[in-house]
Structure formats: structure tokens, C-alpha cells
Write a structure and sequence with these properties.
Strands 1-2-5-8-7-6 form a six-stranded antiparallel β-barrel. The protein has a two-stranded antiparallel ribbon with strand order 3-4. With 91 residues, the protein is mainly beta. The chain contains two helices and eight strands. The chain has a single domain, classed as Thrombin, subunit H, CATH 2.40.10. A hairpin with a 4-residue loop joins β3 and β4.
Length: 91
Amino acid sequence: MIGDDLTVFFGDFAHTVVWSTVTGKGILDAPTNVMGGGMVLSNEYLLTVKTSEFGGAGYGDNITVNSVLYQVREARQVDDGALTEILLSKV
């Protein structure tokens, strides 16, 4: 892993993330999936955060990323558990 200080990982790509009373940094990816033989496009919102800050987020929780409101669909720890990936839906 990167080491004990995950701040470096979030560097220039991070956005402000707010969940309940917790404010921190996260990386939001929004890849577009092509479905239905190319007839339908769908965005998946995937937020990568520090588990120590946002590891308790769960299904149905609201999370704000750069002032945009999302709802948690699923959260899962990555590799050694220092990072968590949160699948989001726009509210």
C-alpha cells in the first residue's frame, strides 16, 4: 500500500465528501456503461475514501460530494481495508 499516510493518495484528485458529521476527501469516478446493444448509457458513481473516516457508511445513507447529494447503494473495503469503495446513486 502507499504507507500509513493515505493523504498522498487523495492529492489533487480528491473532492470534499460529507457524510453525517464526517467531512473528508474522496475520489469520485463516474464511468459510463453501455447497455442494451448500445442503446442505453448509464453512469456508475464510485467513491473511494479512507475506511477510517467513511467505513461506517451503509445502504441508504446520504453522502455529499462537492455539494452534490448521493445515496449509498453499497460499500466495500479494498485490499487491506485502508480504503473503501462506495457505490452511489444521485438523489
